[in-house]
Amino acid sequence: MTTPPGKPEIEVRGLHKAFGANEVLRGIDLEIGQGEVVCVIGPSGSGKSTLLRCVNLLEVPTKGRVFVGGTEITDPDVDIDAVRRRIGMVFQQFNLFPHLSVTENLTLPQRRVLRRDKTEAAKVAAENLRRVGLSEKAIAYPASLSGGQQQRVAIARALAMGPEVMLFDEPTSALDPELVGDVLAVMRMLANEGMTMMVVTHEMTFAREVADRVVFMDGGVIIEDGTPAQVITNPRHDRTRHFLSRLL
Ligand code: ADP
Ligand code: MG
Q1: What number is the ipTM of this complex?
Q2: Which residue, 148, 147, 154, 179, is CA-closest to 97?
Q3: How many angstroms separate the CA atoms of 139 and 171, rounded?
Q4: Whose CA is nearest to atom 6 of ligand 1?
Q5: Is the minimum distance from the CB of 60 to ligand 1 under 6 angstroms?
Q6: Which atom in ligand 1 lies closest to the alpha carbon of residue 52?
């Protein structure tokens, strides 16, 4: 499956999500074009993770529609596994299998989900470990790697599935400061290669330098959506200014 030309890669329309009485997303509209990098910023509890999770149906929206690659994923008849194969996700916690080697962490989902044979899966694993600069860790176990290396393995594992879109939820928030740079460098490479990316992050330097657009969320709505220069350098709303002033 590929996205029809001219279609946004991700389209969110009138999205609401409630957990019981707690309305966490209160009407989100967002379009992300093919190859676009969008950073989502905002205070804790503003609904950033929930938004990301609605984009691959880890959460089911209460109301509204979500399209990925032109396919409506909120359509009850959609083959959600087929949609999820188009979307890679990287979390704050890397969630590697501790009892599997780095290579096995990359080959297992390819074999299970994509039904690739052993040789093909191993080849794709090696290619993607090389992309994230970790070829020498192919037979290592996750516990012997630094947090930054583990997160790069998690990125390689997602890439090995051949996604059209990558979603990142605070991928560097659990890392020691000296390990953040290597992970951001891999994400920067992906952006340069034209990957469509949605990145929840507090790394304002990354957002300023890599994002095509920055979206500021607060209280379950999008307050500002614009270029980094607009949203980070010249925010129009007090809430954005207040948030940014506490980060810097
Ligand atoms: P952010 O990522 O911006 O910090 P989240 O999307 O994680 O915000 O959370 C927004 C709100 O939704 C919070 O009040 C949180 O407690 C609530 N929430 C998130 N996930 C769940 C869930 N699975 N069940 C109940 N409440 C949730
Ligand atoms: Mg979050």
Answers
A1: 0.98
A2: 154
A3: 23
A4: 47
A5: no
A6: 6
Q: How far is the CA of 219 from the centre of ligand 1 (A)?
A: 11
CA separation for the pair 171, 90 (Å, rounded) = 6
CA angle, corner 178, sides to 173 and 179, nearest 5? 60
- For ligand 1, atom 12, name the residue with the nearest CA: 24
Residues of the chain with pLDDT under 70: 1-2, 248
> Cβ distance 120 to 111 under 8 Å?
no
User: What is the length of the chain?
Assistant: 248
Structure tokens at 219: 């209280």
Closest CA relative to residue 37, chosen from 214, 160, 174, 178 = 214
Calculate how far, in angstroms, residue 34's C-alpha sits from the geometric centre of ligand 1: 28
Residue nearest to atom 22 of ligand 1 (CA): 19
pLDDT of residue 42: 97
Scan for tokens 């989502």, then name that residue: 40
What the block records as the tokens of 218 is 């607060």
> Cβ contacts of residue 90 below 8 Å, gap of 6+?
151, 154, 155, 158, 166, 167, 168, 169, 171
pTM above the 0.90 mark?
A: yes
